[in-house]
Design goal:
The complex is a heterodimer of chains A (587) and B (388). Chain A has 587 residues and is of the alpha/beta class. Helix content of chain A is 48%, strand content 22%. An 8-stranded mixed beta barrel of chain A has the order 13-14-16-17-18-19-20-21. In chain A, strands 2-1-5-4-3 form a 5-stranded antiparallel sheet, with helices on both faces. In chain A, helix 1 packs parallel to helix 5. Chain A is elongated and about 120 Å long. Chain A starts with 5 loop residues before the first helix and ends in a 22-residue tail after the last helix. The relative contact order of chain A is 0.06. By secondary structure, chain B is of the alpha+beta class. Helices cover 27% and strands 37% of the residues of chain B. Chain B is built from 9 helices and 27 strands. In chain B, strands 14, 15, 16, 17, 18, 19, 20, 21 and 22 form a 9-stranded antiparallel sheet that branches. Chain B has a 6-stranded mixed sheet with strand order 1-6-2-3-10-11. Chain B has a 6-stranded mixed sheet with strand order 5-4-24-23-27-13, with helices on one face. In chain B, helix 3 packs parallel to helix 4 and helix 8 packs across helix 9.
């Protein structure tokens, strides 16, 4: 026997939902209306019509006006609609309107059942969709960088493996990796805050996406490291792409109200068949280091020798880390004298690495690695502590209370938020006269106007420590910071001193620095004084202090004490563990 | 003498040469004035583009829509491999045409786009939206739904799906001078005089009712949880070649459609082919999953009787006005039931019902007639548009 006509129609509505197909769902209202030969069907919720078929916009407005009363009839242009209203939960209602013929009992039952089915199905579908979306989101988040929305390391490696394993059919294309690193990105972060840094990263991600082809892949590995995967017919095409990227990145952008110019360095590696994806990225990373070493803002193609170089760099960094932790970093002191009478006025403290196999190493060998690895912060503090302890003790000797010490702080150390927290106990423990401690920084560190630096310097001012500007005249030579910060000392760069007596331009610069310092009440030390001619020139120019080989090379503290302190004061040794004279650097 | 409020003229030709056929059909039109709409119905052997170009030259400015067909109808009755020009004019008639293509969008959107011509036509007392679509282009229910989104309850829909003489390869639609595939073309007709739509079929369920347990879009995969193709073949036991040859299957299926139980009627679905791999039947419009379905068969007398019903219903819908012309959308499967030898009997019956007013039309892959309710896609049906 044929079942009731309405049951299969209800089954159709339920089937429309069971397919979970949005296109199918869209037709649900049509199916409801078609099931009872109605012209109009609408879902009304909280004073608005969510879905409607069969009514013009004007008629829908009319329906809304009267919906609250659920009228059994509605007049539309085509005639009088018999309206059936069915609840779909607390807020939603289904209205089905038919011209001419009222609904019989079976039709009303069918429509009620359909309304209830739609209500339940929509809830179920919403729950399913939400669950599915959550899973998709989780999978997306696991493979994408949240800031730039680019594929992350995991996905980049996965894609690169796929590219290497499935080379293009035509055989004329190679898989290449471009490793892009933003030059001096940390400075952007420190100078303008992390929000500005993030803006730069997003900007670079946009530039990269615009620069590459439709089938290339751009990813972000971490921090300021980006990756481009590309299929390339030649190394030339790849370097062309690198150049396009470098040019685009160099365009200044507005970040945090400032126009920022930045550059990037690009390392390129072309993958061989069967290469591991991680190795190809490592190779591109090494090429990027090479590009940076060649002067930033450029690119380099990977060559096998770079791996050796990288291993050396890594090994140097590891050794340096060990050196910092095991007391191999020493402070050596170079005397500073008063030019008018040659009196010892104090010292500049300089870092040296006493390598167990290679002997004493100068900063030229390890400072770059120290900066790169962040070890410079510890090295600066080790040198400062040793120097303060020694000079503090010497200050307590009769006639030596005037001794000063200056110690270098790198820009990275100066930017460290907890620098003052480290310096304060060092000064306290050494008993040094704080007003005679100068922290030597470069002009660049100040001109970059890092907010965290400004606050650090302010707190150092409160401690009573003064700043010495190293290599003055070679950088920005902005006068603003001389006024803004507690600068007590300018150090004329050795390049100007070297030519005194032979280069009128350098003489003019030295004269200008001295007159500027005099006007501001800041003292001046001339660096790199090596000859008596230079000394005489500086004396004539009324430069108060000098430092250089003419007065002594940097030496270990034991040697300084033996050679310079003891002759001035009582004979009691002040330092423990003096080293044999043979190990000292002789002037 | 002033022009009549409405008139219909029809010209036909079966000449194999396109230029001759066009000139012959055009001459037969014997137009009293520039038509407000010209509908071109052409067998696939005619180049629709060439016909459109000829019309643009002969009747510049006349709106033209049309499609390829699976058999044609002229004033003298059913035709084969013919060209039919159906012209509508009159001082009380206003027409606007539209088109929607499925490139990058669904059929529903394409139909809504075509139906926008309703918003351009100057509205008179009576309006109807005529649609011609690609019968092989997907679920034709979507065409009705898309057009209904624009026409709403107020405007009846009428029309049919283009065909290709059961080759089931490609159909064409015409708008102006553009010939397309996968498109919906439409004409909004508004008239001072009544317009009537009649619809009827004459098919009888021959199987027990079955539930549609698997179906999506135009693929009917299972009936009562069994592969739909197996159920179909087991029931009808057609000749072996029907089970192997696509053309033989299409011919057989034309007279053995699926019926779906509706509130107070059986709605027919034309079967166009099968998918051997999934043992599914391919239909011209969706057979909704969950529905109650029957296998049906057309018998000569009931199908013939329906033709008279459809025409009479259309004429009655004119409310007493005399018809000036008819446009018929007749399912290709009905032609198969009549067979070529007796196909003329259907059109003779129509002529006797309508008193010989000019008529034209074509055999379709699906018919559109919405006068009540929101649905209106049919198969195995004769849809009549009577112009009052």
């Amino acid at each position: 026997m044929e079942p009731s006509w309405s049951l299969p129609l209800l089954s159709e509505i339920l089937s429309a939902f069971s397919t979970e197909d949005p296109e199918n769902l869209r037709n649900v209202l049509n199916r409801v209306a078609e099931s009872v030969d109605a012209e109009v069907a609408a879902i009304i919720c909280d004073g608005r019509i969510d879905w409607c078929i069969g009514l013009s916009a004007a008629e829908q407005g009319l329906l809304l006006q009267t919906a609250a009363a659920e009228p059994p009839e509605l007049a539309i242009r085509a005639g009088r609609l018999n309206a059936f209203w069915a609840s779909m939960g607390s807020n939603d209602r289904l209205m089905v309107g038919r011209l001419g013929l009222a609904y019989d009992l079976e039709e009303r039952s069918l429509l009620r059942a359909m309304a209830r089915s739609i209500q339940l199905s929509l809830r179920l579908l919403a729950a399913i969709s939400s669950e599915r979306q959550a899973r998709l989101d989780a999978s997306y988040q696991a493979s994408h960088d949240p800031l730039t929305d680019l594929p992350n390391r995991t996905l980049v490696l996965e894609k690169l493996s796929g590219w290497i394993d499935n080379p293009p059919q035509d055989g004329d294309q190679y898989t290449a990796v471009l490793f892009i690193d933003i030059d001096r990105f940390k400075w952007v972060n420190d100078a303008h805050g992390h929000a500005a840094g993030d803006e730069v990263l997003v900007h670079v991600s946009v530039i990269l996406k615009r620069s590459v082809g439709p089938n290339d892949l751009v990813g972000r590995l971490s921090g300021d490291e980006f990756i481009v995967l590309t299929r390339t017919p030649s190394a030339q095409a790849c370097t062309d792409l690198a150049l396009r990227i470098l040019t685009a990145i160099q365009t200044p952008i507005q970040v945090a109200g400032t126009e920022l110019s930045h550059s990037a360095s690009v390392g390129i590696c072309i993958a061989d068949p069967h290469d591991k994806a991680s190795s190809v990225i490592e190779n591109a990373d090494m090429a990027m280091y090479e590009a940076k070493a060649l002067g930033r803002g450029g690119f380099a193609l990977f060559e096998p020798r770079m791996r050796q170089k990288a291993q050396e760099r890594l090994s140097l960094e590891e050794e340096l880390r060990h050196a910092v932790g095991s007391g191999q970093i020493e402070a050596h002191l170079q005397p500073v004298v008063r030019l008018s009478d040659g009196k010892l006025m104090g010292f500049e403290a300089l870092a040296r690495w006493r390598h167990p196999d290679l002997g004493l190493l100068s900063p030229a060998i390890f400072i770059a690695a120290a900066e790169e690895s962040g070890l410079i912060e510890q090295i600066d503090l080790i040198v400062l502590e040793a120097a303060c302890q020694a000079v503090g003790r010497w200050q307590r000797l009769p006639g030596l209370g005037h001794l000063r010490v200056s110690s270098n702080l790198s820009g990275r150390t100066l930017g460290s938020a907890d620098l003052v927290a480290h310096i304060d106990p060092i000064l306290a423990a050494s008993g040094i006269k704080v007003a005679q401690v100068f922290l030597e920084i470069t002009e660049t560190s100040l001109v970059e106007d890092i907010p965290s630096t400004a606050s650090t310097i302010e707190r150092m001012r409160q401690l009573g420590v003064q700043l010495a500007i190293d290599d003055f005249g070679t950088g920005y030579s902005s006068l603003l910071y001389l006024k803004r910060f507690p600068v007590g000392l300018l150090k004329i760069d050795r390049s100007f001193v070297a030519n005194l007596g032979s280069n009128p331009d350098d003489e003019a610069i030295a004269r200008a620095i001295l007159s500027l310092a005099k006007a501001l009440g800041v003292e001046v030390v001339a660096e790199g004084v090596e000859t008596t001619t230079q000394q005489e020139w500086l004396t004539d120019l009324h430069c108060a202090y000098g430092q250089g080989y003419l007065y002594g090379r940097p030496k270990p503290m034991a040697a300084i004490e033996a050679d310079l302190i003891k002759p001035l004061g009582p004979g009691t040794p002040l330092l423990d563990g003096q080293r044999p004279a043979a190990e000292m650097i002789q002037p | 003498m002033s022009e009549a409020l409405s008139w219909v003229k029809v010209g036909t030709s079966t000449d194999g040469d396109i230029a001759t056929a066009f000139q012959e059909a055009l001459a037969q039109l014997d137009l009293p004035g520039l038509p407000k709409l010209l509908v071109v119905l052409a067998a696939p052997r005619y180049d629709l583009g060439a016909v459109a170009k000829g019309l643009a030259q002969s009747l510049p400015g006349c709106p033209v829509i049309g499609c390829s067909s699976s058999g044609e109808i002229g004033p003298t009755g059913a035709l084969t491999h013919a060209l039919v020009l159906w012209a509508l004019g009159g001082s009380g008639v206003r027409v606007s045409t539209g088109l929607g293509e499925t490139n990058g969008q669904g059929l529903r959107q394409a139909a809504s786009q075509a139906a926008q011509c309703l918003n351009q036509v100057e509205r008179r007392d009576h309006t109807v939206l005529m649609l011609l679509s690609d019968g092989l282009g997907g679920d034709q229910m979507e065409v009705v739904r898309g057009a209904y989104d624009v026409a709403h309850a107020e405007v009846p829909l009428v029309g049919g799906c283009a065909g290709d003489y059961l080759a089931m390869k490609q159909t064409q639609q015409l708008h102006g001078e553009r010939v397309m595939t996968g498109a919906v073309v439409a004409a909004a007709i508004s008239s001072d005089r009544p317009l009537g739509v009649g619809v009827s079929h004459g098919w009888t369920p021959v199987s027990e009712p079955m539930q549609v347990t698997g179906s999506k879009d135009t693929l009917l995969s299972s009936l009562d949880d069994r592969p739909a193709l197996d159920v179909y073949l087991e029931f009808f036991k057609p000749a072996p070649e029907v089970q192997q040859d696509a053309k033989a299957f299409a011919d057989f299926a034309a007279t053995h459609p699926i019926g779906i139980r509706r509130r107070d009627k059986i709605e027919m679905r034309h079967i166009t082919g099968f998918d051997a791999a999934s043992r599914s039947l391919i239909t011209v419009a969706e057979v909704p999953q969950g529905a109650l379905a029957f296998l049906t068969e057309g018998d000569f007398q009931s199908v013939l009787g329906a033709a008279a019903d459809s025409c009479q219903a259309a004429i009655e819908a004119l409310g007493g006005s005399e018809p000036v012309g008819l446009l018929l959308f007749d399912c290709v499967s009905r032609r198969s039931v009549f067979s070529e030898a007796r196909v003329q009997e259907e059109t003779d019956l129509i002529t006797s019902c309508t008193g010989g007013v000019p008529m034209g039309g074509f055999y379709t892959y699906g018919e559109i007639a919405r006068t009540k309710g929101a649905g209106g896609f049919h198969n195995q049906t004769l849809v009549t548009l009577a112009i009052g």
